[in-house]
Design brief:
The protein is mostly helical. 71% of the residues lie in helices and 1% in strands. Strands 1-2 form a two-stranded antiparallel ribbon. Helix 3 (87-106) packs parallel to helix 14 and helix 6 packs antiparallel against helix 7. The protein is globular, with a radius of gyration of 24 Å.
């Protein structure tokens, strides 16, 4: 047992930093708003810097196989608490920090001032999300899930009104049921395999006797139900559009990321535990993920077409995104997972930007103008043509319309932004399975659904845009700089992903290749050095 290099302890920072910051913020009163915002902002910036360093360490050869392991409490795996950072985990930590930065900045002037404990709950939510991405133990994954959910309960209720209260009660009830399923699934897996460490569990599954396989399959299926509720797979995702529409904009933006936490857990566990060839359970559940994900795409597409409200439209867009990712995992092809990871990042940024943008767009539309727009559309009433008078477009209207256009193009997957690049990557992977193999029937169905969902997204977003910017007749809204900067920041990240698509795809290809080698994880975790205990005076 040797002392670890100090940089190895960076794996603790994304968890400890928001935990300590949230504890410091808890006793501060609302009158110290400036101090609370400064501390919270510094915490998120620290997480951002740490995630960038972890990406450099996982992809720069600092750790063997690009996998950093931290086993705490002077106990070797599988008994110690294991934290694991690879390229995928580091990328999602970066995505969490970027979305947290945008949401916190957007909440600066209004939403963070409504409740006393907004900043505390915000930090605990980030702690839970970061912990879920880093942990390598099912019980600790449950703990971080509960921290994340407990903080989200308070944030969804933040600035409550009647609609938000009804949506939050449904959200809390559904997630409490998911937590119960999580515990039951974990207990069944432990009763069968005798361990909850993911690497140790993968090693034991490979040699599991046939008479124990049935009980472990039941435990894994129950555990998957908990993750699929968070991932909004049909019919488990009925809660999502209502919650997205009712939550405050900065909270709704983070809920988009929370949905991806469930998808990440499925991706991580299934590629590690049930990879094809891993004993008698190899390949378990992949077909269910594939076809369940495609049904989810159909459900989300129909919901987008039927929705008039922008919040519900964004919720159904997130459902389509989750269905696409789950189907890509179930398809069982490494190159498809690479494109799906690019799609995950791009769609999360675009939907989060759209949710922030909705509050600003609503300032244009008055109730009377909204009714008039719908009436004119239903009865095909056209405005009489008037002679143009050269009226200028206010800067606020130009910003809102261009930002909305960028979000719509990305969500629908139209050129030239990252949504198109992601879908092109998905199609390229499906049409080129490798090894001279033909395209599977499921691949053709998935491509058709992705194309259909994009066309419906175009129609839905175009309908909303026409009603808002063309037919509403509202004046230019008043926008504060703290509201404009986060939306422009997220849209700019989508543009950056498009311009830098080649190096990003190369990085994601290495990340996908890494998670498709479960043996590397097992070897790195089970043979990782423990953190040296402090010397004792009575030690001999």
């Amino acid at each position: 047992m040797t002392a670890l290099p100090w940089m190895q302890h960076l794996l603790l920072v994304p968890i400890l930093l928001p935990l300590l910051c949230g504890a410091v913020l808890a006793p501060l009163t609302q009158g110290r708003h400036g101090l609370k915002f400064a501390l919270g902002y510094a915490s998120v910036l620290g997480m951002l810097a740490t995630s960038l360093v972890l990406i450099a360490m996982t992809d720069g050869g600092y750790w063997q196989d690009g996998i950093g392991v931290y086993v705490a409490a002077d106990w070797a795996a599988p008994f110690g608490i294991a934290l694991v950072a690879d390229r995928l985990a580091a990328l999602l930590l970066l995505l969490t920090a970027l979305l947290g930065l945008a949401a916190l900045h957007f909440a600066m002037m209004r939403w963070s001032r409504i409740g006393v404990h907004f900043h505390t709950l915000f930090q605990f939510l980030l702690m839970g999300i970061n912990g879920a991405f880093l942990t390598h133990d099912l019980f600790n994954l449950f703990v971080f899930f509960e921290v994340m959910l407990a903080a989200s309960y308070g944030l969804v209720l933040h600035g409550y009104n009647a609609e938000r209260l009804r949506a939050s009660l449904q959200y809390i009830a559904v997630n409490l049921a998911a937590s119960l399923l999580f515990l039951l699934g974990t207990a069944l897996i432990y009763a069968t395999a005798g361990t909850l460490n993911m690497a140790d569990l993968a090693a034991r599954i490979a040699t599991l006797p046939a008479h124990d396989a049935g009980l472990l399959k039941i435990g894994a299926a129950v555990l998957a139900l908990a993750f699929l509720i968070k991932s909004a797979m049909w019919p488990l995702g009925f809660w999502l559009p209502t919650t997205y529409a009712a939550a405050s904009p900065p909270v709704a933006a983070l809920l988009v990321l929370m949905t991806k936490v469930g998808t990440y857990a499925i991706l991580r566990l299934w590629l590690l535990l049930f990879a094809p060839g891993n004993g008698i359970l190899g390949g378990f559940g992949y077909d269910a993920l594939l076809w369940g994900g495609m049904v989810t795409i159909v459900f989300g597409t129909a919901g987008m077409l039927a929705s008039d409200g922008a919040g519900r439209m964004a919720g159904y867009a997130a459902t389509v995104s989750s269905g696409t990712l789950l189907a890509a995992v179930g398809y069982g092809q490494a190159s498809l997972v690479t494109a799906a990871l690019y799609y995950l990042v791009g769609s999360t940024l675009a939907i989060a930007a759209f949710l922030l943008l909705i509050e600003l767009i609503d300032r244009i539309r008055t109730p009377g103008s909204a009714v008039l727009a719908v009436t004119m559309e239903a009865w095909a009433v056209e405005d009489a043509p008037v002679e143009p008078v050269g009226r200028g477009i206010p800067a606020a209207m130009a910003f809102l319309s261009l930002s909305f256009l960028a979000c719509a193009l990305t969500i629908a997957g139209l050129p030239p932004l990252s949504g198109f690049v992601a879908k092109f990557g998905l199609f390229h992977a499906l049409l080129n399975p490798g090894g001279g193999a033909p395209v599977r029937t499921a691949g053709w169905v998935l491509m058709a659904l992705v194309i259909a969902s994009g066309l419906v997204a175009v129609l839905s977003m175009m309908r909303f845009g026409v009603r808002t910017f063309w037919a509403s007749g509202g004046g230019a809204p008043r926008l504060h700089r703290s509201e404009v900067v986060p939306v422009a920041f997220l849209v700019g990240l989508s543009v950056f992903m498009t311009v830098q698509a080649s190096p990003i795809f190369a990085f994601l290809g290495r990340a996908s290749a890494g998670i498709h080698r479960p043996g590397d994880y097992v070897a790195r975790v089970l043979h990782a050095p423990v953190v040296a205990a402090p010397a004792r005076e009575d030690a001999r």
